[in-house]
Design brief:
single chain; elongated; 26 strands
Length: 607
């Protein structure tokens, strides 16, 4: 191997946003890591990671990135391209929070003869490993597709070996989007005692069958070997993660990544057990279940992972407004109110709504076929669509509360089917919560969990709101034509704009003037009660100084209607009728000896 090709590539972005490329030997890189133990920038980065400071704009782009598998150069348009290949792989193990554990695992890598170097990553919570492999024959290295296939195979084999050895997930470093493993990289780091091996033995993966098809002697050893073999076997076929938002372990099929992340249920676990036994590994469903339910599975917050880093990517275009314009409506405040709701939803995910939850709810009203539900589902990017829920039963209050902690967007589909009692009681109070009191299975106490979900609603009927006092939490949107759900949505820019707006504290709540507008707008969508109908049949509101004004109490008005329309005409109780009167728009009232009196006048048709 040419010594020049055996060097690692370093890439740095300068103040003019130009990429600078240089080469460094492995020995000099290790020396640089020792010197960097005094680096303030790396110390700051590790402090931010340790304190989970995920929403600070990344200030560390100036740090070099290290590429091990290829010597890179810049194309004419400034894109990094492969100039030549090296015999090195760059792996990452973790996350590992305990520093002592990191140091122990660093020394464990000595066991594998192909280990060239190992050092602590820039976050302080990962272990980076440089591994030597045997490159294909020089005549094959000019074939880019063949080399791509070789490195994919090499990385799969190496990751399986080191995962089994270290008992932690090991992946190509720095690859989160399915990119070529040739571009595996990491930030330059700091390590006071990096590991550097003098005479590594290259790992020969060319022609090796990676998935065992028959029992082997190494799989029939001790219990520890069985466990390691099982973990290695599973890791070849699937990626696993513990979704801390859903509170569930999920899997990604490496051969069908387009299926996305799915929850590991018992049917899947039983299938894994059978697959492992066919491969010669004595694995019971319980063994698989223990592994998938253990801390060996990396814990992720997919919402944080999606939003983190988007703040500096917004291109300045109003993507939120463009999304709102896809809905045809005669509501002039639609774009303004939708923007506040959308920002409130993202703020809810980011943990900004700590005192009050996102209590704004758009209610889309339109006939069937106007794509209301499709639009609601498309509000979430594909990566987060697991967080969409539209079949929630609101008569199960415990399930509703749990769903507000476990999901991101809840569509109250067919809003008109929710009972008046639920609208006026449970739903009105629940929507404004910032945290959710929950008692999880096997827990001994009720704990306040962070609320994640915001609400949106749909209905085919226009008379949907039964609670006058609670209608300020909803704003009804009369959809006048089919919603445009065909054009693709630029989700990265959409959420980059929203995340930036939340950090800039742009308004995402209704002020008093907005609430007055909302309630005035919603009146024509109210579900009329008998009190509504009969009061409007017999009375008009009046000003106190009007010559024909009457000053009547709720009971006097109530008795008058019952005499005129019949004793069973008003189905509400006197107490409920009084609450109704107090919320009649523009009605003037005064406190009297017997309670509250209202200024009204008889309608001519009623008298």
């Amino acid at each position: 191997m040419n010594k020049q090709n055996n060097r690692l590539t370093m890439v740095r972005t300068d103040k003019k946003q130009q990429r600078r490329i240089s080469l460094i030997t492995l020995q000099k890189l290790m020396d640089r890591l020792k010197d960097n133990t005094d680096s303030d920038e790396i110390a700051l980065l590790r402090y931010q990671v340790k304190n989970n400071d995920r929403y600070v704009v990344d200030k560390h782009d100036g740090l070099h990135r290290i590429y091990a598998s290829a010597r890179l150069k810049k194309s004419d348009n400034g894109v990094l391209v492969v100039a030549d290949y090296t015999d090195m792989l760059l792996l990452s193990a973790g996350p590992i929070v305990e520093e002592k554990r990191l140091e122990q695992l660093k020394q464990v890598t000595r066991i594998v003869p192909s280990t060239m170097a190992a050092f602590i990553g820039s976050s302080g919570q990962t272990l980076k490993m440089v591994v030597q492999v045997t490159l294909p024959d020089p005549s094959r290295r000019d074939n880019e597709a063949e080399m791509e296939q070789f490195y994919r195979k090499a990385y799969r084999a190496a990751c399986a070996i080191y995962s089994s050895l270290l008992h932690v997930p090991v992946v190509p470093s720095g690859l989160n989007d399915g990119s070529s493993p040739v571009m595996a990289s990491c930030r330059i780091s700091a390590d006071k005692a990096p590991l550097l091996m003098e005479n590594p033995t290259p790992l020969n993966v060319d022609g090796v069958e990676l998935v065992p098809t028959a029992p082997t002697e190494t799989m029939k050893g001790s219990d520890d070997n069985e466990v390691s073999a099982l973990i290695s076997f599973l890791s070849r076929k699937y990626d696993f993660r513990y979704n801390s938002v859903r509170g569930a372990t999920e899997y990604l099929d490496k051969q069908r990544p387009y299926w996305g992340w799915r929850v590991t249920d018992m049917r899947f676990i039983n299938g894994l057990s059978l697959d492992a036994r066919e491969a010669g590994i004595e694995a019971r469903p319980k063994d698989v279940q223990i592994y998938l339910g253990s801390s060996r599975i990396r814990s992720v917050d997919p919402v944080d992972d999606y939003l983190f880093g988007l703040s500096d990517k917004w291109d300045g275009y109003d993507h939120v407004g463009d999304l709102a314009d896809r809905v045809k409506t005669d509501l002039k405040q639609w774009k303004q109110w939708f923007r506040m709701w959308f920002y409130g939803m993202v703020a809810q995910w980011m943990g900004y709504n700590r005192q009050f939850g996102n209590s704004i709810v758009p209610l889309l009203v339109a006939p069937q076929g106007f794509h209301k539900s499709t639009f609601c589902r498309q509000l979430l990017p594909p990566e987060l669509r697991w967080g969409y829920l539209d079949n929630l039963k609101f008569d199960n209050q415990k399930l509703v509360m749990q769903s507000m902690a476990d999901f991101l967007l809840i569509n109250i589909d067919e809003f008109n089917s929710i009972s008046k009692k639920t609208q006026e009681g449970f739903l009105k109070n629940t929507i404004q919560l910032a945290s959710i009191p929950l008692k999880r299975p096997y827990s001994r106490r009720v704990e306040a969990e962070r609320r994640r979900a915001s609400f949106i609603a749909t209905s085919n009927m226009t008379d949907v709101l039964s609670d006058p006092s609670g209608s300020r939490r909803f704003f009804v949107v009369n959809v006048t034509g089919p919603i445009d759900t065909e054009r693709p949505i630029h989700y990265e820019q959409l959420y980059a704009q929203a995340a930036a707006a939340v950090r800039n504290n742009e308004r995402r709540w209704f002020d008093h003037a907005d609430m007055e507008e909302v309630m005035a707008h919603n009146r024509k969508y109210a579900l009329l009660s008998s009190a509504d109908m009969y009061f409007n049949d017999y009375f008009d509101t009046a000003s106190a100084d009007a010559p024909d004004a009457l000053k009547l109490t709720a009971s006097e008005i109530y008795d008058y209607i019952r005499k005129r329309a019949g004793a069973t005409a008003v189905t509400e109780s006197l107490t409920a009728f009084g609450r109704y009167l107090s919320n009649v728009p523009d009605i003037e009232k005064v406190h009297v000896k017997s309670g509250t009196a209202y200024f009204v006048k008889y309608r001519k048709t009623g008298r």
